């Protein structure tokens, strides 16, 4: 077969897979926002059916033949052409899909389902012993999977590749180490200082007004509401259904408006990335996000570098005061200090901007040690508590607030956690590069001008799709290797301002 013809077949194959995938995404979205309680059983079956069809199509042996007919031909000589990018990434995903024997795939799916239900049952009781066997099984199967998939340096990299294509644990370690040391040092400086006044929480924020304010903020930042929508859910998420349809969700705390505000800004950051991807390449890797960490760099940039900045509060606080009488006496300065506060706690998802990364790095250290065979699953609780003490100076009162708090490991998601902190590191590095070109953005934000930043992100990151892997993208956009220095500088400046250091 001619390479052109084979490439055409691959394009159609890829687009069909994307349609199946995003249709499942739409069903998931509905399941978490609008489905009636009695609809869940049927929904699980619908999703399972689509997943089965998706897997059959994904492993279609003809795709392997088409790939072989295209690879090494003139069509893919220019490495950053759409054709070369697509073929590179199709090869990556196709190999992954076909290398795993069905027996292993079935065992993994079962162990994941068991792991999650065991975790759900055991967590409320902090019953590690009841959960441990499921985790032992999952670790064993994921190690087996890594061996089947193959890797250059170590097994963990094979798992990491699912979320961060091409990333290596050994490259992440020194970047994280620098961030950890600096964060712990900064945290020490803040210990025993007086906390910013609680000026925002514990007041009355009618939900209808919260929703209106959140939509207004998201729209002002550049989220296109005609290509998206905001709905209510338990645990906020965003989902891209396709060009012209990138949705966000949030939950509301009637006594703390900033809860919904920051989750909306975060999810809108994800959705704006989706809205900025090249439509003409939809359904192919060239039109997709680069990696989970790059996705997270976008949400974190809007949430923390924009949403928690003095300029943002200078611009929006008069508007918030108009909507919420409870905020009439709260100055932009006090509100911004409050949202910058640092308070070490046990729970990752409730952590502030500074300590959040310590939670993530702790998990990365532990799962890496387990995958390297340096730590047994049975030793995780003790190792967890030890690291909590070292990094955050806290001892969890129970496993539910310690080693058992996250859902990730119960589903066998090893290699996922580092993407959160990589996202923060990349956000800082991208933001510094944007600022170098656009000038100080604090004044722009204070004038309500967010388009220059979004325009820069569109050009430098969104429009590139998956052309470059995350590390190469950072290098290309900022001229430097990934470096935690920019995040440390940002966090230091923020804390110094909030605590009058
Ligand atoms: Zn996110």
From TrEMBL:
GO terms of biological process kind: proteolysis
Transmembrane segments: none
Alphabetical list of PROSITE patterns matching this protein: PEPTIDASE_M32 (PS52034)
Active site per UniProt: 267
Annotated Zn(2+) binding sites: 266, 270, 296
Catalytic reaction(s) noted: Release of a C-terminal amino acid with broad specificity, except for -Pro
EC numbers: 3.4.17.19
Signal peptide (residue range): none
Broad EC category: hydrolase
GO molecular function, one term: zinc ion binding
Note on cofactor: Binds 1 zinc ion per subunit.
Family: Belongs to the peptidase M32 family.
Protein task: Broad specificity carboxypetidase that releases amino acids sequentially from the C-terminus, including neutral, aromatic, polar and basic residues.
Protein name per Swiss-Prot or TrEMBL: Metal-dependent carboxypeptidase
Organism: Desulfocurvibacter africanus subsp. africanus str. Walvis Bay
